[in-house]
Each structure stands twice: as structure tokens, then as C-alpha cells.
Design a protein that fits this description.
Number of helices: 6
Structural class: alpha+beta
Number of domains: 1
Number of strands: 10
Length: about 325
């Protein structure tokens, strides 16, 4: 008599069922572990920026890293980048020069139609650290679109048909993270001159008055570094089943504070914003979220736009001197 050592069909089916059950139990845990790991990488990206900004300030008279060119205060090795007529034009030309030098493409077209501060301020830090663009850490690990464009900057769709060739070609060099406007623009109006403010019809555009000089903000102007946001992920990519714009009250994003810490906090727990050109100091800045469907998550409502969103820490009351989380919000008012 021979002894049978194989499995019966029923035994094999039981083993397969048990394996399927174990996989079903483990996959959500593995998925959560991956999301947690990517959140950690996102925070690490921001911490590196915080360290670089601190080092930059130590080398440049306490100045916060930002585009430093203003009309009449710079000279470029590229003749077409000299002679800016407005302060904001000079910052466009500075970004153009950085991209030309860091990519080696001396024929890269001059940016003229879009101010660079929202998505490209990190380029100043990259240039200071002698790195090249695109910079991998400029992309959140959940920002698949930007990562894809970074891998092949020459192969990506037209972002904005009204923005010109230079802006569209620059987009692979953008960042998932944005510096708050107070880090590179005056906090409030002064002597009848307006400062940079939010464009009312588009979450992604600012208004640049002629008289406001850009850059030149100092770290020592930050009165509450552990409570003031310096840089933030523009979208909530980590907390839910789908991405969403940061300004929804229940959104959660990674935030870099001026003390160098990074925290994953709910937007609605921050203090309300202010309107920097409101002489009363009582106004707030509200956003109209009009997403570009190529790279931005849809609105919460499902409509083309969502209006009336509070901007929170993007426009901190009292600017660099203000408080975003914890304590009491400061009043806005005259000054810089």
C-alpha cells in the first residue's frame, strides 16, 4: 500500500480562502503604512526647505529666501533679462535666469505673463543650494502629476493657453508647496500704497500694485515663529480618499512653520485671514477656487468653481507678525 501525500481539492480551496482572507486583512494596513510613509516624506521635504531658508538668512543679512530682483537693483548676464519696467517683471526675469543656469538651456524663453511667487519661490532656495531644476523634493510624494512632468520636462500638456510659452514650459519646475505671500511681500498697505493681495476671481492669481517692492522680508520680523506658517502644501493629499484644495475648513495639509517644525494640521483650526489692503484691518481674504482640471483636484461642490472660501494662513492677520495656530489672532492694521 502507498501513502497519499498530496492535498485534496477541498483542502486546497480552504488554503486559498485563508490566504485571500489574510491578504484582504493586510492590504488596508499596508496601504495605510504607505500613505503614512509618504506623509513622512512630504514633511521631510518641507523640513529641508526650512533648514535652507535658515541658512540663506544667515548668509544674507537675515533675509527670507525669495526673489530679490526689483526694478533697477540687479544686472543679468543675459541681455534680454535686464531693464525690467516693474518690480514684478524683475522677479519673472530672475526665475528665467535661474532656470537657464540650472538646466543649461540658455534659450529658455523669458517669462513675462505670470508672476513666479506662487509655485516657483523654491527656485531661489534651489539656486542658493547649487542644485538643479527640476528638484525632486519640490514635489509632494502624492503629487503624481508633477512627478511625471519632472521626469520629462519636455513632454507635458499645455497648462494655460493664455499664459504664454514660457509659463507652460516652466511648469515642470514648479513646486507642490507654496510660501505664504508675507514671506516675500509687505504685510499691509503703507503711505497710500497697496501691497500684494488675492485676485478675487481666481485662487491662483495675485494682484501686484506698482509701488510694492518684493522680497527683502526678514526672519526677525516673525514675532511668533512656532505659530506662523511659512510654507504649505496647496492641496490636502494625505487625509482622505481624494485630494482637495487646502482652503476647505476640514482639509489637512503639511505646514512648515518659521521655527522649522512641520505639522499636519486641519485648515479650519487656523485663525481667520485678513485683507492686507483693508485700511480698517477688519476685512478677510476669501478665495474663489477655480481648479485647472489638468493638475488640480475638483471642487467640493462638483461645480466649476467654489466661491467664498476663507483663505486662513495664506493671508495671516498682521502678516509676518501674526499668529496662525494657537493663542489669539492679532489685529491687522497699518504698517509692514
Amino acid at each position: 500500500m502507498k501513502t497519499r501525500t498530496g492535498f485534496t481539492l477541498i483542502e486546497l480551496l480552504v488554503v486559498i480562502a485563508l490566504l485571500a482572507l489574510l491578504i484582504g486583512l493586510l492590504l488596508p494596513a499596508l496601504g495605510q503604512a504607505r500613505r503614512t510613509a509618504r506623509l513622512g516624506v512630504c514633511g521631510s521635504n518641507l523640513r529641508q526647505v526650512g533648514v535652507a531658508v535658515g541658512t540663506y538668512a544667515a548668509d544674507f543679512e537675515d533675509k527670507i529666501a525669495s526673489f530679490s530682483w526689483n526694478r533697477g537693483n540687479y544686472h543679468s548676464e543675459y541681455p534680454d533679462l535686464n531693464g525690467a519696467r516693474q518690480h514684478v517683471d524683475a522677479t519673472m526675469y530672475q526665475l528665467t535666469e535661474i532656470i537657464r543656469r540650472t538646466t543649461g538651456d540658455e534659450n529658455f524663453p523669458r517669462l513675462e505673463s505670470r508672476a513666479p511667487h506662487r509655485r516657483f519661490s523654491h527656485a531661489v532656495v534651489v539656486d542658493y543650494m547649487a542644485e538643479t531644476l527640476p528638484e525632486e523634493t519640490a514635489a509632494c510624494p502624492e503629487d503624481r502629476v508633477l512627478q511625471r512632468w519632472q521626469r520629462d520636462p519636455a513632454d507635458f500638456p499645455e497648462i494655460d493657453p493664455n499664459a504664454g510659452d514660457a509659463y507652460n514650459r516652466m511648469f515642470p519646475f514648479a513646486s507642490s508647496y507654496q510660501f505664504v505671500p508675507a514671506s516675500w511681500a509687505p504685510d499691509t498697505w503703507k503711505r497710500r500704497t497697496n501691497t500684494v493681495s488675492q485676485a478675487p476671481g481666481d485662487h491662483d492669481l495675485f494682484l501686484y500694485p506698482r509701488g510694492a517692492r518684493l522680497g527683502e522680508r526678514l526672519l526677525r520680523e516673525v514675532d511668533f515663529p512656532a505659530s506662523k506658517v511659512q510654507m504649505f502644501d496647496f492641496y490636502d493629499r494625505h487625509s482622505g480618499p481624494r485630494d482637495q484644495f487646502y482652503a476647505y475648513a476640514d482639509a489637512k495639509t503639511d505646514l512648515l512653520f518659521f521655527d522649522g517644525s512641520v505639522r499636519f494640521l486641519t485648515t479650519g483650526d487656523a485663525h481667520d485671514s485678513f485683507a492686507p489692503n483693508d485700511r480698517t484691518g477688519r476685512g478677510v481674504t476669501r478665495l474663489t477656487y477655480a481648479p485647472n482640471t489638468l493638475y488640480e483636484p475638483p471642487t467640493r461642490s462638483g461645480n466649476a468653481i467654489d466661491t467664498g472660501l476663507e483663505s486662513y494662513f495664506r493671508w495671516t492677520r498682521a502678516g509676518l507678525h501674526g499668529i496662525d495656530y494657537g493663542g489669539a489672532a492679532l489685529d491687522g492694521g497699518e504698517g509692514e
